[in-house]
Specification:
Elements lengths: L21 H15 L3 H14 L4 H13 L3 H11 L5 H17 L3 H8 L11 H19 L6 E3 L9 E7 L4 E7 L7 E7 L10 E2 L9 E7 L5 E7 L8 E9 L2 E2 L3 E2 L10 E6 L5 E6 L9 E8 L2 E2 L3 E2 L10 E6 L5 E6 L9 E8 L2 E2 L3 E2 L14 E2 L4 E7 L5 E7 L17 E7 L9 E5 L4 E5 L5 E4 L7 E5 L6 E4 H5 L3 E4 L13 E2 L12 H13 L3 E9 L5 H23 L5 E8 L13 E9 L2
Parallel strand pairs: 24-30, 32-33
Antiparallel strand pairs: 1-23, 2-3, 3-4, 4-5, 6-7, 7-8, 8-9, 8-10, 11-12, 12-13, 13-14, 13-15, 16-17, 17-18, 18-19, 18-20, 21-22, 22-23, 24-27, 25-26, 25-28, 28-29, 31-34, 32-34
Length: 615
């Protein structure tokens, strides 16, 4: 929670501790060692005992204050300041005030932080004046941002997304697809890459594993997919071929599948940690984060260009972007010029803030803080912006779960870009067979041994790939009959036409016939009823009424009862097949004249119609 200003206390060799009692000095050294290994409770007991015997022991006061800060006990930490402000030297008191102010700053309690810092006078024990100035500027900046926030609304992505314990680092394609990292067991499980499509602002496809070629028993995460969906760069750690602890790999979408991942060579990867890639729209420039030598600080942002089939040696973006602190999570927008990145090394609102810089001929523009409410007191990491200008990101709750969220990006942050790819994207379409209006539908490419799903967008479009080796396409949508087309028939005009169900239409291809004066199902009708059961199972949105009839022989009362029994025979069979009743009903309608139905004498059918179509 507490970032760069919470420095572990050091005891300088040339400085003597502020106590004349050697046993108390020894006890302090023991307490400090316990803090270093995380035993805060035992250390607190020792320090309280020390201060009972020497309440002017400055270092013990500082260490006890540090313990309360680390344990998220701001009231107790503040009480240390109140109780010992007259006992400690001014530079030690200043340190207490700065650390306490930084604690409130990191929680977004900016006014409290400002008030504490107003009492700080130089010097500050073991904290340089530049860091104090940085904190003051950040607090003032944050207060001003809260006074004029951007008009931004955040929304959690709906089901079926966010079904995992943790999902983060999303990356988007131009056709409405996101690739993101999932992890179970609240961060202790395996990382894998999953993908989902959307066709409008609220409907998403079921997330599925991106590819068995990519996901493995190792961790795969922090991925970037190019806007055309054909190049994927991702991070994997501790693979047998790794150069460092975590390295970058690349895979290409060919023949409707992802190729075996290739490890980037030493031009990109290093013997240190390399991660958090971001590809330009055409997949030919790669930004990423590394902790290798040659940087300005800890984590730095680097860039590599694809030249032919190879990648150029990575170059540090330099002081225009990087700082002596952590700089990470780059996202290069669709224009190839606008860089969004996270840093804790520039004046901001706390934790990692998002900044924007634009690449020009002579370098990068001065990074601009994206302001409130996009930034806040906590960490902003792992953002991407889609072609329709939605920013996707993740945030966590108190239980450790991490959820995907998004917001519409204000116009002043990124430009509206119309992409042109070297290889034009090919699209198929799904339309209503009656109105010819575009439809958002689930589309499946069917192969000999596999099926790959797509989701058409609000314009009815879904992305085709450059080499199509499927044999059939299947399209499905609520309120419409499923459509299966051969590859050849589809490619004739790249359009799938879905036939809508109509209220009152018969769902039977053949009539259900009964013997004279009987309601027992004939053996030959089972195939038609099985087909009907499958249709009803596939379309739970349909409300089905089973209508029974008889001939005119016999009394009206008798025929009414017989028609009901015939309808119920069909109803019972369908219930046994599909295992539910909520969208099924039956009704007998008694006798019907011969000229009303084109059927043999003494044979009458059960007609099955739809009462209501739900879309």
């Amino acid at each position: 929670m507490i970032s760069f200003l919470l420095l572990t206390l050091t005891t300088l060799a040339q400085e003597e501790l502020h106590t004349r009692r050697s046993k108390l000095a020894e006890a302090y050294t023991e307490a400090k060692g316990l803090v270093d290994v995380g035993n805060l409770f035992k250390s607190e007991e020792i320090l309280k005992d020390i201060l009972k015997k020497d309440e002017s022991f400055d270092e013990a006061i500082l260490l006890l204050h540090e313990i309360h800060i680390k344990r998220d006990q701001p009231e107790r930490a503040n009480a240390i300041i109140s109780n010992y402000s007259k006992e400690v030297e001014p530079r030690f008191l200043n340190r207490l005030l700065v650390i306490q102010a930084n604690y409130h700053y990191q929680l977004g309690e900016y006014e409290q932080a400002r008030k504490l810092l107003s009492n700080v006078n130089s010097p500050v024990y073991q904290i340089g004046s530049e860091r104090v100035t940085f904190l003051k500027e950040s607090i003032e900046f944050s207060i001003k941002q809260l006074e004029r926030p951007l008009d931004v609304d955040f929304e959690k992505l709906p089901n079926p997304l966010n079904q995992f314990e943790q999902q983060y680092f999303p990356s988007a394609t131009v056709d409405g697809r996101i690739v993101f990292t999932i992890r179970d067991r609240l961060g202790r499980g395996d990382e894998d890459l999953y993908t989902s499509y959307y066709h409008n602002e609220s409907v998403w496809s079921e997330p599925v594993s991106l590819s068995d070629q990519i996901n493995s028993e190792r961790n795969e995460g922090a991925a970037s997919i190019s806007a055309d969906g054909r190049t994927l760069v991702f991070t994997s750690c501790n693979r047998p071929d790794n150069i460092g602890s975590c390295d970058l790999y690349v895979s290409y979408f060919r023949n409707d599948t992802w190729t075996k991942p290739l490890l980037f060579g030493p031009e990109v990867n290093s013997t240190e940690w390399d991660s958090q890639p971001s590809l330009t729209a055409n997949g030919k420039t790669l930004y990423f984060v590394s902790m290798r030598e040659g940087g300005l600080g800890k984590q730095d942002i680097w860039v590599s260009e694809k030249v032919g089939d190879n990648w150029s040696p990575a170059v540090n973006l330099g002081p225009e972007i990087n700082t002596v602190e952590d700089d990470c999570s780059p996202f290069i927008y669709l224009d190839g010029k606008t860089l969004i990145f996270s840093t804790r090394g520039r004046v901001g609102m706390g934790g990692y803030d998002l900044f924007k810089s634009i690449r020009q001929e002579r370098g990068w523009t001065r990074p601009e803080n994206l302001g409130s409410p996009i930034n806040n007191a906590f960490d902003q990491i792992g953002y991407c912006i889609s072609a329709d200008q939605w920013a996707y990101f993740s945030s966590s709750n108190a239980t450790g779960r991490i959820f995907l969220q998004r917001f519409k990006v204000p116009d002043q942050i990124v430009p509206n870009v119309k992409l042109k790819f070297e290889e034009p994207l090919a699209y198929g379409r799904v339309v209503d067979a009656v109105s010819l209006e575009p439809l958002s539908a689930d589309v499946f490419f069917i192969y000999d041994s596999d099926t790959i799903s797509r989701l058409s967008n609000e314009n009815g479009q879904f992305l085709l790939t450059e080499e199509l080796n499927y044999s059939q396409l299947l399209a499905m949508k609520r309120g419409y009959r499923n459509s299966v087309l051969s590859k050849q028939k589809f490619l004739s005009d790249s359009t799938i036409r879905l036939q809508p169900f109509q209220e009152g239409e018969s769902l039977l291809q053949e009539p259900i016939l009964f013997d004279f004066d009987s309601y027992k199902l004939r053996e030959e009708v089972y195939r038609e009823l099985d087909r009907l059961a499958a249709l009803v199972s596939e379309h739970p949105e349909l409300q089905i009424e089973i209508q029974g009839y008889t001939d005119s022989v016999g009394s009206s009362e008798y025929n009414q009862t017989l028609s009901e029994k015939r309808a119920k025979s069909v109803y019972d069979y369908l219930v046994r097949k599909i295992g539910r009743t909520e969208n099924l009903s039956y009704q007998g309608y008694g006798e019907i004249l011969q000229n009303d139905l084109d059927l043999p004498l003494n044979d009458r059918k059960v007609t099955i119609i739809t009462r209501t179509v739900v879309r």
